[in-house]
Amino acid sequence: MKIFRAFWGLFLIFIGIILLLNTSFGLSWGIWVFIWQFWPIILIIFGLIFIFEARKVSFWTGLIILLVIFTSAGYGLYLSWQNKYFDNNNFALKNEEIIEEKIANELPANIEEVKVKLNLGVSKTTISGSDDQSLLYVGAHLSNFFHLNQKIHTTGRKAEVEIKTNPVFKTLFQPKAINDLNLSFSSKPNYEFEINTGASELDLNFEALKLKKIDISGGATKMKIKFGNIEDAEAEIKAGASLVKLEAPETSGIKIILKSALVTNNFEDLGLKKKDSGWVSPDYEDSERRIEVKIDAGASSVEISRY
Asked: In the chain, what are the domain boundaries?
């Protein structure tokens, strides 16, 4: 029990010194990013203390070992103070480089249907049609904090693409993360998109793509979706408080189903009529192309425009 008390005493002194350096001596608050990466040390210390208790290690031996551990951590702080790890002006990791990664995947032969799964976390994502029809998709990922994983699986005339971004390391006090993804897809196949994201910004231009369906699940999101006039399309949006802008061709009928009452919209201004559980354009039933959008969101704004 004495070793436990010694640990908590050293721990409080350790935290107090850092806070004093933060508040009085100008040490960057970004130092906590560095410290948090070493949180497993706490588990190691507790493990050692349990061993000390079981082996009946003397108090002074245990205290010396704890002092060595805390001294090592203090040396890490010294390196930070010497500005080897941090840019004290920007409160960010000094070796935090913004890396642009070019990505591309060839269009497999005879593929007619493609399902695209995007698991992005907090991100800024742009999707559009590509001029290069030999590639299924081409684009770039710009990030200082996330690693991009991508894979493709084909079965007969169908393909499934999965693109995922994972943080390099997770911290409670992380620097501002950049996670920008720009993708352009071939206009040849029919597409179904499934996008899972955090609080993000989405710019989705499907004007040149054969979009059949898109499902979006996210946090508070700012999104712009431009539908084409090539195929009937379905969209389902589940999000927190969001700003949703929809663009649809003049020749397509539109049906909007809202599952939340806390949504402002401009539906009546565009001539949409309330019908059952949704809003429908006058030409919906007779339109050659139809767009149906289901929105389940928090307090949000939904705006439709025609082109």
From this structure: 2-91, 99-306
